[in-house]
Amino acid sequence: MKPDNRPIGIFDSGIGGLTIARSVSMLMPHEQVLFFGDTAHLPYGDKSAESIKSYVSRIADFFIDNDCKLILLACNSASAAAYPMLHRLHSETHPVLNVIDPNVEYAVKQAYKTIGVIGTKATVTSRAFNRKFASAKPELKVKSIATPLLAPMIEEGYFNNNISQTIINSYLSNKKLDGIEALVLACTHYPLIKNEISRYYAEQKSNVEVIDSTDVIAAYTQKYMQKHKMLAAADRHPEHQFCVSDFTVSFQKTTNIFYGEAVKLTHVPIWG
Amino acid sequence: MKPDNRPIGIFDSGIGGLTIARSVSMLMPHEQVLFFGDTAHLPYGDKSAESIKSYVSRIADFFIDNDCKLILLACNSASAAAYPMLHRLHSETHPVLNVIDPNVEYAVKQAYKTIGVIGTKATVTSRAFNRKFASAKPELKVKSIATPLLAPMIEEGYFNNNISQTIINSYLSNKKLDGIEALVLACTHYPLIKNEISRYYAEQKSNVEVIDSTDVIAAYTQKYMQKHKMLAAADRHPEHQFCVSDFTVSFQKTTNIFYGEAVKLTHVPIWG
């Protein structure tokens, strides 16, 4: 079998998706990652589905022009709004994966009767999780709330302190989440506050499993690539590339929060 | 003198600038306001100066196409990044006002020796306030810090509660602001947390004047229009128009926070 050494295109609205890029590159060190963060339009959480579709569509062309073998939408808002369109347009030549399917596949295998989902307004309003859960396991009750302040809070470095814990507690004490047995972190920023979320439930003496999607998504991607014989040669140590549609020093500084180490951002001014 | 009944174009990156639109329409009830919120790109606070210039430039064309007599950049990030360019391009036919000059003009008349400025990263990084203060009153010491979480916090309805007070206290206790006698609220969202900011200083027993720019800016705009004979006829009760580059139900719902009453947003898809 001939290895496929083309890069994996990983997309996010900003740089939160670097958590997924990191997880993918740790799990599959021979794969080259081409990351694109649409910092010109971030955050997607407040944007309409129509706008998100138009942005994602343009960036998919960028991945295809750069010979990516696979496109991973590492952003829940983008997955919710634009995955069906992207899959329809490109999947015959370029498989498209999203971050919702892996979480749903994982969660429906567990014994939960009631599951919670937190994410941006765009993700929650789309009801993409509700539809996918309803289709995979109709008896599962899904309770979702938008938690729009969490992503900017994390981007500004507010986590593991009294401010972040206050905001997290305020959201999670919402009665709409009462009775959940697990909580899906449906935003690529949230792995950074997983411990604080777990601490909230521990203090409440609630037995709620917090589903950190990062590893689930990387494993799903690997399994997909194995099945479709898309893996790269095992002797490679490729350099990754990290592109953004708008460049600021602040974005550059924040990369290490999400990627675990500083990476060099390249400005690709798709929108001029 | 013939009255000038053309609309005033008021621009913001989102809908926070509705605080200025409100103040202008209350002070000059005969004037028609054409508001444009660039919700497709909001927030500007994290964007580069180059991107902000390109967005603002396109929206200035919209105001000119819609026969506005004056363009008011009711957004500090936009004023900091794009005002000089816009002034250079259009001021001969369409005067352009920004929200930095009125605050600087007001503050230099007071007896302050040290003044603080809080705003977005784009506003603070630009050093536009520092430059303007240095030019108007070189002996005034200016201390500025970026407070990027405040705008999303307010947009999500978090003010006058323990979360907002915790975040505000965290920012204002920054040692970089030590010794200020006044604080300029250099973001159109911040008037909504003026009371909380004042409360922080009262609790600290610090005598810091909090400069709410909204009324200062409206008065500056009125004075400019009087001086240049641009006022509308005094018997008019025009209907205002509120446009956004991206429409979501959430934006629509939030208008009343900033404008004091709900207004109907019209989607003008400049960017498709």
Description of the molecule:
The structure is a homodimer of 272-residue chains. Chain A starts with 7 loop residues before the first strand and ends in a 5-residue tail after the last strand. Chain A has two domains: 8-98 and 215-267, Rossmann fold, CATH 3.40.50; 101-213, Rossmann fold, CATH 3.40.50. By secondary structure, the first copy, chain A, is an alpha/beta fold. In chain A, the strands form two sheets. The first copy, chain A, has a six-stranded parallel sheet with strand order 4-3-1-2-9-10, with helices on both faces. The first copy, chain A, has helices at 18-27, 49-65, 76-90, 100-108, 121-126, 128-136, 150-155, 162-172, 194-203, 213-227, 249-259; strands spanning 8-12, 33-37, 70-73, 96-98, 114-119, 141-146, 182-185, 209-211, 241-244, 265-267. The relative contact order of chain A is 0.20. Chains A and B meet through helix 2, helix 7, helix 8 and helix 11 of A and helix 2, helix 8 and helix 11 of B.
